[in-house]
Amino acid sequence: MIGKTKFYKSGLHFKCTACGNCCRLKGGKVLVNQTEIQNISRYLGLSVEIFKEKYCLVGAEKEYLIDGTDGACIFLQEDHCKIYQVRPLQCRTFPFWPENLKSRFRWKQLKSYCPGIDEGPLHPAEWIEDLMRTQKQEDK
Q1: Backbone φ and ψ of 8, nearest 5°
Q2: This prediction's pTM
Q3: Higher-scoring residue by pLDDT: 61, 89
Q4: 95 preceded by cis ω (within 30°)?
Q5: pLDDT, tens only, 86-129
Q6: What are phi and psi of 109, to 5 degrees?
Q7: Would the pLDDT of 1 be above 50?
Q8: Are 48 and 37 contacting, i.e. CB atoms less than 8 angstroms apart?
Q9: pLDDT for the residue 3
Q10: Distance between start and end Cα atoms, the chain
Q11: In whole angstroms, what separates CA 128 from the centre of its chain?
Q12: What does 18-81 look like in DSSP terms, one character per residue?
C-alpha cells in the first residue's frame, strides 16, 4: 500500500450496531494470543489449560477459538458476545482489517452484512493505520 493513495485517506465512518453478524462469518478463524487466552480464561473463571482444551484449536504454531456448532463464534450467545469485555484484538478491530481495506469495493461489500459500515463517527486514516499496524504486530 505504500506509495498508493488509500481510498480511506479522508477516514471512514463506522459504528458497531452489536448485530453479531461479524461473529457469524463462516470460515473465519479468531486468532488468540497467550495474553488474550489468560484474560478470557480469568474472565470465565477457568484455568488456562481447561480454557485451551475446551475453546481452542492449535494450528501452524498459533491458537484459534473454535467455532460453535452453527459455525459462528463459540462465544456468540443470543446475539451478544459472552466475552465482549475481553474479546480478542481481531474482534475489537473489526471491520478495520487489512483485507477489508484493500479497496473501496471491499469496504462497500461489507455493508451487505455489517449495518455499521458508513455509519456513525469518522475514524481518521491515521487511526486506521495504527490499528492495522497493531494487528500485523500481533499476527507475527
Answers
A1: -100, 20
A2: 0.84
A3: 89
A4: yes
A5: 999 999 999 999 999 999 999 999 999 899 999 999 999 999 99
A6: -60, -35
A7: no
A8: yes
A9: 52
A10: 19
A11: 14
A12: ---GGGG-TT---EE-HHHHHHHHHHHT--HHHHHHHHEEEETTEEEEPB-TTSSBTTEETTEE
